[in-house]
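Researcher: Excuse me, tokens okay?
***
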Amino acid sequence: MSGKAAQAPLPPWGSAVAGATGAVLANAIVYPLDIKILDDEGILGLYSGINGSLIGVASTNFAYFYWYSVVRTLYLSSQKIPMPPNIATELSLGAAAGAIAQVFTIPVSVITTRQQTQSKGERMGLIETGREVVESEDGWTGLWRGLKASLVLVVNPAITYGAYQKLREVFFADKTNLRPWESFFLGAASKALATVATQPLIVAKVGLQSRPPPARGGKPFKSFMEVMKYIIENEGSLALFKGIAPQITKGILVQGLLMMTKERMELLFILLFGYMRRLRDQKLRQAAEAAAIKAKEVLPLETAIERAKQSMPAIMK
């Protein structure tokens, strides 16, 4: 992205809209992989809670790409000698952006996660589910349940986009704009690496935001470490990686499609902004030319009046 940014930098909201659009389209396509209830509820059950989920995806990715663009731009502008960030810096920038984004968007994530784990008979809408969370023993703070785990989980997008940048420098260093399959490949490879590294935290976060298991008598988990301890004691340590196969499959498809769409959207924005700049410059030139012509028309008249004034004393004599 460095080459592209140098060619025509996008404002943060441009990257945010591009990322959110790609995320919504990608998640809508692979959403059924999140809901494994085909036998119980049929085809429609595969899309249970999709509206809330896509709202969460859009808000999360918009916030992430916005803040990622901001912090990365600030970092690059602070350098005396412009150089691409190293791996550690790239991960730090991604983690900072992810942390800021999580604070604003986790309530939507809490609600949509609970929606997806509701049975058919208990299923409620987005507002009703949010009200249920607020009316629980945690009150309004329940909407931020799992924030600590989510802040830890910012290493996932940090690894994903850090790996994306570095893999791009390795495989396509001389390319400003990527082809769709190249963006898909980079997105899929980077997400696979991040998922393997963070799957136990992903499992713990879901446990935090879902209803507590019956064995706990309705007592919610207080931390992701508590969830992980419970899982290890009751299911074994390998259970921390349960669902990793569909998670990787979904992650590869989503991230591949997301980055492919995001790259196309960013290119579209670059072309649109370039057209708008050319249109603005053209109007400015036309206005300047019109002013110059008008000035030339007025100047001879002013000159004639001035000469007439100068000749009046001579006539009077």
Q: What stands out?
A: Residues 244-316 form the longest helix (73 residues). The CA atoms of residues 180 and 234 lie 44 Å apart. The chain has eleven helices and no strands. The radius of gyration is 28 Å.
